[in-house]
Amino acid sequence: MLSIRLKELRISHSLTQVDFAQKLSVTKQTVSNWENNNIQPSIDMLVKIADYFNISTDYLLGRETNMQINVEGLSTDEIAHINMIIKDLKKN
After folding, report:
1. What is residue 36's predicted lDDT score, i.e. its pLDDT?
2. Range of 86's domain?
3. What mean pLDDT do residues 56-64 have?
4. Potential cystine with 17: which of 31, 44, 59, 80 (Cβ 3.0-4.6 Å)?
């Protein structure tokens, strides 16, 4: 599940493997190996990936099926705006 979620998240953020690797200070080959399920990221790297995408490690590992967005630090108005966008997207 981790390999699938990593690739989906990377693509949804319009990142190439090279771009993503640079953001995490790893090689493109490392990202490729994660996505092809050849190797697993370390626990520290798993946390770094979750933090980068602002999601939980449980989602990355397939322990949760719902992606949650961390809105910590946003104002009530900003959160309301995000909720409106989500509702609009669900209508389509």
Report:
1. 97
2. 2-91
3. 90
4. 31
